[in-house]
Amino acid sequence: MSIAENVQAVRVRIDAAARAAGRDPGEVTLCAATKVQTSDTIRQAIAAGITVCGENRVQEMTAHLADDAYRGAQLHFIGHLQTNKVRQVVGKADLIQSVDSLHLLQAIQAQAEKLDLVQDILLEVNIAGEESKSGLPPERAVQLALQTAALDHVRLRGLMAIPPPVDAPEKNRPFFAAMYQLFVDIRRKIDHNGSDIDCLSMGMSDDFEEAVAQGATLVRVGTALFGPRPPRTGAV
To answer: What's the CATH number of domain 3-226, 3.20.20.10, 3.40.190.10, 3.55.40.10, 3.30.450.40?
Structure first.
């Protein structure tokens, strides 16, 4: 199938999952995870209706920006972000989805202040407590959300999570449900900023329908759109 056909097929599945859960399909954004894809492939996805691209690696993101590959779509940074690469992402990405420490948050705030802009972010939550993954424990996420609300060059837009790999999508249902509850709790605790906290990013190619059923407002899909990832090369 072509990329355009894959985009349509994924959208049909998102719409069906939303309607089955009594939700408006328009509440769910499809983010194309473009890790290791070429600039031409990214352009094809945008031409097929993709409005948000999610990039995992700063080097690839920078190269695609130089190539103007994201024209016509928002750019989200969805991978682990090191503080020494913050200056390459702040002001370039519309949304940084992977903020997982106070140290990183402060670095983003400092760079955004230098550029005199407000950087939108999500807090990444390690909802299953996996030692191999980055992300905040849920209780720390609440604390960092409150700290974020006090900053003037960072705007908290919501939460992101990557549940464990499973052999059946429904096994991640409890993690998605817990993320939704945490999302609601944080909105309640930050009353003055509640209207800005509107993004719950969870669900990927193997489980996005379960995520939609549990309240995701954005799903990050790569393989279902582009097929198995090609090996990395120096070309973009």
So the answer is: 3.20.20.10
